[in-house]
Prior knowledge:
Blueprint: H1 7-11, E1 15-16, H2 80-85, E2 98-99, E3 103-109, H3 111-117, E4 136-149, E5 156-167, H4 170-186, E6 189-194, E7 197-207, E8 214-224, E9 227-238, E10 241-247, H5 253-271
Antiparallel strand pairs: 1-5, 2-4, 3-4, 4-5, 5-10, 6-7, 7-8, 8-9, 9-10
Amino acid sequence: MRTGRLRAVMAAVPVLVGLLAGCGTQDDDKASAADKPVPETSRSASASATPSGPGVVLPTGPSTAPGLDAAVAPRRTFTADELKKNLLPESVFGRGLERGEVLTMPFESTREQRRGQWSYCLDSEENPGWLGTAAYRGTTASSHAQWVDRKPQPPQGHIVVTQSLVSLPVAAARDLQRVERDILRHCPEFASDMEAGTATERYRVEPLEGLGDEAYLEVQEIAYEGDTRTSYRAHVRVGGVLVRVESGEGADRDAAVRWAARLARNVGSDLYEVSG
């Protein structure tokens, strides 16, 4: 089975949290060096699922953020530690939430990695142009916020939101964001294998106006054994930084977009240090 794509199905099973070992949960990301810069985590559970644990604080701030293409040096990049310091704290997302492990690492997305991640959509195409030809390398930092149910043993972590930042030169960030968007448009629906059967994956892209230099919302539906799970992932480019925020349990489309907007504003003010 492919890693990096069937996150929503896998997220239907609670993530086990190694509390005694002090570990957070980790899942796959479709665009990292090891195909997992965030726990992109497993595409957390359905946005329609309501957690029985601590409440999610749904954001009320603006769903906008300024673009910075005209204000930043096109080759400027950031270290993974610099990105890590600018991730949103778990208190932004809800009461009583805990932060999972923060991952910092090199970032890489190559044509061959993208081919593997989207193999079920290739059909008979041997050399699809929509996968892009370039390799993109930079740095990334990611984390997730969760509430932990300690009644069962071992305790179970329920992911509310995942967030990641990727740093590349501006031109590379712009190109990669468009490649990933085009892939989603090329692959609106296809079947993929699970260990116990076949799942149907559906993707939809919605433009997001007034958010960074360019932005879109990825809507993913996974239908498996009569159950359909939906998640929302906001993709925002601010200069050479790619902001990605994905909804989990108790969070919806609006929450994902507004959290992404807040993170994008932080990128401008704190990372690039551009006021306004």
